[in-house]
Design brief:
The complex is a heterodimer of chains A (468) and B (110). By secondary structure, chain A is an alpha/beta fold. Chain A has 19 helices and 13 strands. The chains are: A alpha/beta (468), B mainly beta (110). Chain B: Belongs to the URM1 family.
Chain lengths: 468, 110
């Protein structure tokens, strides 16, 4: 759609419905002035900055704790085209932090829910829904239609994929992450530089900064570790701030070649970008190190995705056809422990035998964190969080002592010990640790794992159990 | 906390973030004195510090969450005075009095 008089006005902005004819243009322009006036008068924005936003296209991948607050400000600021990618539906446990959704929209696709909220904030932008997850097959096709990408996802597999595609398509990436009480934010690949160029100092990609994913055993998700709403919200809002800044400054455009030998100051900060870390401390009113800016390295010559030889290791065609294998690179968690069957008992059998009095006197240890335990537990269970149990075990091993040092308060002669955890992995390790320390008294005392943990208890015994 | 190695000590601070503090008594900042030189008389490096932390400061036995095969595990960033350690020579960096070393676990949630 041509924008008549675009040189005088703000442009057809937002291009919203797409079907609006030139006749509406005048009204739209007035509305734009009024709508964006408070940010347009900020030094450094102005009419030109606003026009750049209006003619820009941002892709937000992930419509959750980061994506919701990020999208609100991106939409409010008047970015003309906003794509949102997410395959999930809105769940009740999302709502404490995913502020773009609502109780009335439970069960709706997150992308549709968020867009309905954004239209309420600002109907002018064109919203493009992608109600499915980003994959190696579709990533390039989606990302190629945008000027800037915001990584608001929740897993390393997708993070590496998005960064790789952004490198190949020369798109800047504003990346954030958050778990429990911590958040991180960094601007990557900005200004974007073609893959393989190492003749100067250039901005790094995600792989330059985070070469390898952590081993699966050390990774925790928001579902497991929990997440404070304001922490992830802050990170999402900060992402929007960075994205708006980049578009207003036109830093998303690839830089001229060869690069100026003295890049402007603003660019230097991007070439060695700041990783902002945020730590929220529930136990102290004012944390001394709440925000901390860290200086990262520029593009690495040896980087798999953007370094000197990267054109031979990473291509769009390769990604589409399965190379590299992102799932394998970020290897999904595999159960570490499998005890022999005689040391395991199903939740159902444990319950039934206990009801019939066939188990007799016993000790039941629940190794979940105390917050999980506080939601509910099996009657008579004693809470010994896994970390504390391991620490005690190490102490006993080092300093000697008997099981009373190991499990104070739960010693009961030769009564069998049952161990339960959340999903049945920690409990198996706990059983092994206890035996290693001789708590089983050479086999006289039985120590058993309740297979599948409280998750299985909920499924097999008590469907009303509040499992988190 | 004093290092077991005899000789001059240097004061430094070590911070843990992104969940790693859990392995170190749930304390985010530790002020310590470490030996200025290792047992061969060479200046103490980050590698020396990492070993020192595992042996003396870590209360949690799950050392594999911090170190794998003698090196810092993938997914942990090391910052020397708030700059990526790759700018400073990584494990070879020689510690100076007053240095701050930060270990941050990379987050992926959202």
């Amino acid at each position: 759609m041509e924008a008549p008089g675009a040189t005088e006005g703000l442009g057809e902005g937002g291009a919203g419905g797409g079907g609006e004819a030139g006749a509406d243009f005048g009204a739209c322009r007035d509305e734009e002035f009024e709508r964006y006036s408070r940010q347009m008068i900020v030094p450094g924005v102005g009419r030109e900055g606003q026009l750049r936003l209006i003619y820009s296209r941002i892709l937000i991948i992930g419509a959750g704790g980061l994506g919701c607050p990020a999208a609100q400000y991106v939409a409010g600021a008047g970015v003309g085209t906003i794509g949102i990618v997410d395959g999930d539906v809105v769940e009740m446990s999302n709502l404490h932090r995913q502020v773009g959704h609502a109780t009335s929209r439970l069960g709706m696709k997150k992308v549709d829910s968020l867009i309905s909220h954004l239209r309420d904030i600002n109907p002018l932008p064109a919203y493009v829904p992608y109600t499915f997850p980003v994959t190696p097959e579709n990533a390039a096709d989606i990302i190629s239609g945008y000027d800037l990408v915001m990584d608001c996802t929740d897993n390393p597999t997708t993070r590496y994929l998005i960064s790789d595609v952004c490198v190949l398509l020369c798109k800047p990436l504003v990346s954030a992450a958050s778990v429990q009480k911590s958040g991180q934010l960094i601007v990557l690949n900005c200004p974007p530089t073609p893959q393989g160029r190492v003749d100067g100092k250039y901005a790094p990609c995600y792989r330059c900064c985070f070469k390898k994913p952590p081993p699966p055993s050390s990774m925790v998700s928001c579902g497991e570790a929990g997440i404070m709403g304001p922490v992830v919200g802050l990170m999402g809002v900060a992402q929007a701030g960075e994205a708006i800044k980049i578009l207003i400054s036109s830093l998303h455009l690839p830089q001229p070649s060869p690069p100026p030998s003295f890049p402007p100051l603003a660019d230097q900060n991007l070439i060695q970008p700041t990783l902002l870390i945020y730590t929220y401390d529930l136990s102290s009113a004012i944390g001394p190190y709440s925000f901390r800016p860290l200086k990262m390295s520029p593009r690495k010559k040896t980087c798999f995705a953007c370094g000197e030889n990267s054109p031979s290791t990473l291509t769009l065609e390769g990604i589409k056809s399965g190379t590299p294998n992102y799932e394998q690179f970020c290897a999904l968690p595999v159960p570490k422990h499998t005890l022999p069957s005689e040391e395991r008992i199903s939740a159902r059998v444990f319950h039934d035998m206990r009801e019939k009095g066939e188990i007799g006197r016993h000790v039941l240890i629940d190794t979940r964190e105390k917050e999980h335990f506080s939601f509910g537990s099996i009657e008579g269970a004693v809470n010994v969080p896994f970390g504390r149990l391991l620490m005690r075990a190490a102490e006993v091993k080092r300093d000697g002592g008997d099981e009373s040092g190991m499990l104070p308060g739960v010693v009961d002669g030769d009564a069998p010990i049952f161990v339960v955890c959340r999903r049945g992995l920690d409990s198996q390790e706990a059983v092994e640790k206890l035996k290693e320390l001789g708590v089983d008294k050479g086999g006289r005392r039985r120590i058993m794992d309740i297979a599948g943990g409280m998750n299985a208890w909920k499924e097999e015994v008590d469907p009303s159990f509040p499992f988190v | 906390m004093a290092s077991s190695v005899e000789g001059p000590q240097i004061p430094i601070s070590v911070d843990f973030s992104g969940g790693l503090e859990m392995l170190f008594s749930n304390q985010r900042r530790h002020s310590l004195s470490i030996a200025a030189n290792d047992k061969d008389g060479n200046p103490s490096t980050i590698a020396f510090l990492i070993d020192h932390l595992c042996k003396n400061l870590m209360k949690d036995p799950r050392s594999e969450l911090f170190v794998l095969d003698g090196h810092i595990r993938p997914g942990i960033l090391v910052l020397i005075n708030d700059a990526d350690w790759e700018l400073e020579g990584e494990e070879e960096y020689e510690l100076k009095a007053g240095d701050n070393v930060l270990f941050v676990s990379t987050l992926h949630g959202g």
